Amino acid sequence: MSIKQRLLLMILLISFLLLSLGGYSLVNLHHSNQSLKSVYEDRVVALGRLDSSARSMLRTQWYLSLAAIHDGAPAAMADELRGTMQRTEETWREYTKTSLTEREQQLMRQVQAAIDALNAEIYEPGVKAVRAGDTALVTSLAQRSKTAYERLRVPLNDLVQLQLDVAQQEFIEGQQRYTTTLWLSIAAVVMGLGGTAGLGIWLIRSISAPLNYAVEVAHAVAQGDLTHRIDSTSQDEVGQLLGALREMNAGLLGIVSKVRGGSELISTASGEIANGNLDLSSRTEQQASSLEETASSLEELTSTVKQSAANADHASEMASRAASAAAQGGQEVQNVVAHMSSIQGSSAKIVEIIAVIDSIAFQTNILALNAAVEAARAGEQGRGFAVVATEVRTLAQRSAAAAKEIKTLITDSVERINEGSALVEGAGNTMHAVVASIANVRDLIGEISAASREQTAGIEQINEAVMQMDSVTQQNAALVEQAAAAAQSLEEQATNLIVTVGTFKLPAEASHRPRQLAQANPALLT
Q: For position 525, what pLDDT does the model report?
């Protein structure tokens, strides 16, 4: 039964008792009112009318006696006597109209017979005698009226006494009814109070005991004790409250178990993350240092390659000049072709020098490719850039020396051509070939210069990329340090969370769940 139904039952029971007591009281009040009404209408009023009738009869007798001794105004006296007789009849008639018991009716008939006899034998003749002035007859009737009135007085007194007896009986019955009503009301009130008190005590116990248990459970949960076993078989509102508390306790138990397990996992994982971040920070700092060294080596290599490119440009310019000089010499060599045979050896040396220049260009290309590979690898292998730079510098010097030799030979050839101008008329075609070869050398040196410029641009891009990598690596190192600090802070927060969650008391089976969770999720710790 729900609390609502219990309260409704108690209210209905109290209302029933109040209605019953009120209805019984109303019935008794109605009876009392009817009794009072009967006493007044049937007894008090009747006594008054009987008293009026008796008084009127006495007054009639008094008037008759007065007329016997009074000689004056017989007509007025007769009228007065008649009036008292009529008033007696009227008051008696009003009495006979009231509610009469059987005994009253018997006495009323006796009184009525006595009144009729008194009127017929005494008063009617007396009125006539008074009106006729017959004093002797009036005197005789007055004396006889006393005896006749005595016959009337006895049933009339009995009738009055009966009214008093009936009134007394009704009073006694009213007192008995009042006593009965009083005791029944007291009994009903006592029974109502007892029943209400018993029902109230039962209702209070049925509500307060589960509520006190619910309050105890709520205080235990508020203090972190989740070990209570909440049992409730009641289906009322308090039972529903205990059911809700049981569900809340189970939900909190699951949540706290998961939070405790998760906080332990977070603490362990954050510790390992912090250690890993410290190791990564150290490695990142080493990598940043290596990148700084690589950037320094690349700067030196860039400077060397720029110098080689400048030397190649200078050699190209000199080759251009040599080509111009050779072209001019070709025009003059037409007259000294015969003498050119003496400088074939010099031409052969020129060819060798040209071969050396070609070899230098080829090796420079190879070295440029090696420099690109070395730049891609970077790291500890950055030292190879110094070797490559040295080789490029040596090749550039050899190219410069070859160019000088070419200039010397060409100068020597010009002098010999001047000396043997008469002999070189037949050597014009050969000189044209030499001019063409010098042009080829110039083109090759130009290609070398262009390649050197491309190498310089590539190395500058590599240097810029390495600088960016150095900057990014330093930023990564700073971020790794921040991550390590955050992981350490997370570990501290997880430890604090474990301490906070540790204030909750869990059942034994719930306390093993975090370990089972950690064993079931080892990947979270790696």
A: 36
